[in-house]
Description:
By secondary structure, chain A is an alpha+beta fold. Chain A has 5 helices and 8 strands. Chain A has a single domain (2-164), classed as Glutaredoxin, CATH 3.40.30.10. In chain A, helix 3 (99-109) links the parallel strand 5 (89-95) and strand 6 (116-118). Chain A is globular. Chain A starts with a helix and ends in a 5-residue tail after the last helix. By secondary structure, chain B is an alpha+beta fold. Helices cover 27% and strands 34% of the residues of chain B. In chain B, helix 2 (53-62) packs antiparallel against helix 3. Mean pLDDT of chain B is 85; it is low at 1-34. The chains are: A alpha+beta, B alpha+beta.
Amino acid sequence: MRQLVYAALLAGGLAFAGQTGLPGGVIPVDGHAAPPLRLADLDGEAFDLTELRGRWVFVHFWASWCGPCRKEMPAIQRMSDSLRDSALAIVLVNTAETEDAVFSFLGIVAPALTTLMDSDGLVTEQWQPRGLPASFLVDPRGRVSYLALGGRPWDQDSYLDFLRALPGE
Amino acid sequence: MCSSAGTATSIASLCTVLLLLAGRPAHVHAGEPQVPLVFENDMFSAQLHPRSPRQVAGFYEARGFPKRALEALRGSCFLTVRMHNRSPTVVWLELHSWRFLAGTRELQRLSRSDWDSRWRRLVLPQANRSTFRWTLLPESRDLQADEPVGGNVTLPATDIPFAVEARFATGAQKQGPMRTMRIENVRCAKDDSP
């Protein structure tokens, strides 16, 4: 039943997307409170999503063994470069890999990006992604407002324009 | 009937065209040994790629899985499935409606809970369990328009060829027409397979 409700929300989201010109594969969701996201990054620096209240946050779950993740990561780096002056925060979360694996991958594919380390994968599971990669947009009040289906070309104009146009608080 | 071969993209494409022209769900038969197996109908496409024990163990070994887990993985049959909903409506992937038929005998799929039990017995680290779960095909997924999904389906290893048969509800409320998929002559890959 819960799945049917979710499907209905997604179907509604797709209809909404068609009406508003959301970029492909980006779907509005129900605005539930974002699950906890408190992790350390590759340098051991602690991060807590709640400290970014007041800003939109792009939360992206990935793993280096996942083909679509590898394909998408350079686009995320270019998106990050393009949005450097925007208020959007970009947060990457690696799912259940070692620091060595992550460091060697990001160092080659997206050296300007860093990532949080969900070393045991439990935080990722709390977010219930539909698969890897998975991207969510959390609004300034800490609510999950959009999700992206699979990997997306985030550096394309339609995606950048959408991200730049996210409303303020 | 169409056959498809891993190196014969043009044949697969031709089959796709013929099947679409036929305007009905396709039953793709594979000969000796042909991978990946391709299925396509008017709403979705699917590929099924048997993985050899060496491929499976190599993948997970590179992700830091311990030897005791690799042994368990080598003894199982891995089929990597990729699906893509090419329709404008929802297609429901539900593994409980998939059957693996060796003649009159039904092979039992290894579910997520089967693997969880196995990993508990082997005291597999949580990170490895998480990675493994993400590499499995979801048990259930309301595939949205243009949404792909991929992952492994697992069975106990067998030398017997079998058919994969599955049913898919369609529509956001499952109100649409049912679609079926049947892929014949699937074989678990061996280490000497190409």
